[in-house]
Specification:
Length: 300
């Protein structure tokens, strides 16, 4: 592999959608995937995914294998190490997660608040919830983050006298709720605790959402779709639903709002931008009600 070829491969993989495609391929049981399946998991149209696969194939990053009418894609062995390095090894490890280490680390973090048995139970339950119905990419790190947020919520319990907690809930937790949460975190910082959840969570945050947020200087960071739990609702001061019907349990003492928003699934980026800006205005109004005054919105 020449340096020119290596550089081209790195450039083509830098696109966030292509990086996510490679993660999903690496997370699949046999390290290969079909375009149709990738499109479903990414929330994109098949022609869009095919376009990205063609770019990856042209640079030799992936290889194609025909099986009758189906075409399977896998990472080219010559590029596997480079892809692992670029993506931080996400989704390509051949080794099972070290759950004992995950448990030990979180048990140490919550020493004096929860015993190891409680931490282990939340880790196991969080792992099962995240793995249900999907290939669960980055399962160990996502499980640790999800379990930690649930333990934080459990520790707060009914103590709602401090920092306000806002929970955004939509169906897949990959679009509207992530837009709202990203904007609220960006504007409020640590003055508000922000949680998200989905009644039927997707595998990952949709690329169009990441792009729309990045355009206004908001990072998704390590956020990922999470299932709705009682812990999150009990810990919230404000619960905002977006098209998920009656999925949220109702507890006294919480404020419940329903935002009627267009679903960004399969919508072009200009439409997603409009949804983003609608959410931006609502979030700023919410902050005013929480007695946090951000600067005026530049959105007209």
């Amino acid at each position: 592999m020449t340096s020119r070829t290596a550089g081209s491969a790195l450039s083509v993989v830098a696109d966030p959608t292509r990086a996510r495609i490679l993660q999903l391929i690496g997370a699949s049981p046999d390290r290969r995937a079909l375009v149709g399946k990738l499109a479903d998991e990414l929330g994109l149209r098949q022609p869009t995914v095919s376009h990205h696969m063609a770019a990856l194939h042209a640079e030799g990053v992936v290889i194609r294998e025909r099986d009758g009418r189906r075409v399977w894609y896998s990472v080219h062995p010559d590029h596997q190490e480079r892809v692992n390095s670029l993506l931080g090894g996400a989704g390509v490890s051949q080794q099972d997660p070290d759950w004992e280490r995950v448990t030990d680390d979180l048990a140490a973090r919550y020493r004096g608040t929860f015993n190891r048995e409680t931490v282990a139970r939340y880790i196991a339950d969080s792992r099962d919830l995240l793995a249900a119905g999907s290939t669960a990419p980055l399962l160990a790190s996502r499980t640790a983050a999800f379990a930690a947020s649930r333990l934080d919520d459990l520790a707060r319990g009914d103590d709602h006298g401090g920092t306000p907690t806002v929970l955004f809930v939509c169906v897949q937790n990959a679009g509207r709720s992530q837009l709202a949460a990203g904007i609220l975190r960006h504007l409020a910082g640590d003055r508000v605790i922000v949680r998200t959840a989905g009644s039927a969570p997707a595998v990952s945050v949709r690329p169009a959402i990441v792009t729309a947020l990045d355009e206004i200087g908001v990072s998704v960071g390590g956020e990922f779709p999470k299932p709705l739990t009682d812990d999150a609702v009990k810990a919230a001061d404000v619960v905002i639903t977006m098209g998920c019907g009656d999925a949220c349990p109702v507890y006294p003492g919480r404020t419940y709002l329903d935002w009627d928003l267009e679903d960004p699934v399969d919508k072009p980026l200009p439409t997603v931008r409009g949804i983003r800006d609608d959410i931006d205005r609502r979030v700023r109004d919410l902050l005013s009600e929480l007695f946090i005054q951000p600067s005026s919105s530049p959105v007209s």
